Amino acid sequence: MTRRIEPVVLTGPAGRLEAQLMLPERARRSAALVCHPHPRHGGTMHTKAVYHAARGLALAGVPVLRFQFRGVGASAGHYTAGPGERADARAALDWLANRYPGAPLLAGGFSFGSWVAIAAAQERADVAGLLALGPPVALYDFGFVRGDRPILCVAGDRDAFAPETALGAFVAAHPAAAELVMLRGAEHLLTTHLQPLETAVSRFAGRVLDASDASRA
What pTM, to 2 d.p., does this model score? Predict the structure, then answer.
């Protein structure tokens, strides 16, 4: 499928945020945000799992925004261990809502980015689905996640930061809305399982947006 990458500069609370918008050839009425992993551990919007998640969304016809958290790449500001990064994600969601007014949004990220993006999305009524990719449930508290919208969890069964028992408990707390995809043999970065990640994200996006379309019909 043909995709086009459009460079974007966002205005965040700490200044400019370097970003890219991935545009599918045939876009449906929707948009998505995918946030990158921990800035102190090499995470950027170009991290493989982030890029392949974006590809999966684009495959489902969804325009996808990726951006560099404050202090990463050409983005202004400094790392704040969560609060500032959540403010950055809120600014990115606002930008998407302004570019695609009235469209259902998907929001999430990989590892630290999933914790940040989902927290930022909780307060928004326009977010139709959430992506928790490699969510570090052993390191961060995800107790703020509400069960009122679909959430996809994708992780490797060898991921020390997202143990299967903890993920199972998370999904069990949201049985009507959560889907868990365990990638057998995969570690945290999912570099050996990027295609299954892409496929899982694409299928989830299609289901969520189909349901959103049906509810408006």
Answer: 0.96
Residue where the block lists tokens 């925004």: 65
| Residue found by looking up tokens 């043999």 in the block | 185
CB within 8 Å of 202: residues ≥ 6 apart = 56, 57, 59, 60
From first to last of its 217 residues, what are the pLDDT tens digits of the chain?
A: 567 999 999 999 999 999 999 999 999 999 999 999 999 999 999 999 999 999 999 999 999 999 999 999 999 999 999 999 999 999 999 999 999 999 999 999 999 999 999 999 998 999 999 999 999 999 999 989 988 899 999 999 999 999 989 998 888 888 788 999 999 999 999 999 999 999 999 999 999 999 988 887 6
Pairing of strands 15-24, 31-35: unpaired
Secondary structure (DSSP) of 172-205: HTSTTTEEEEEETT--TT-TT-HHHHHHHHHHHH
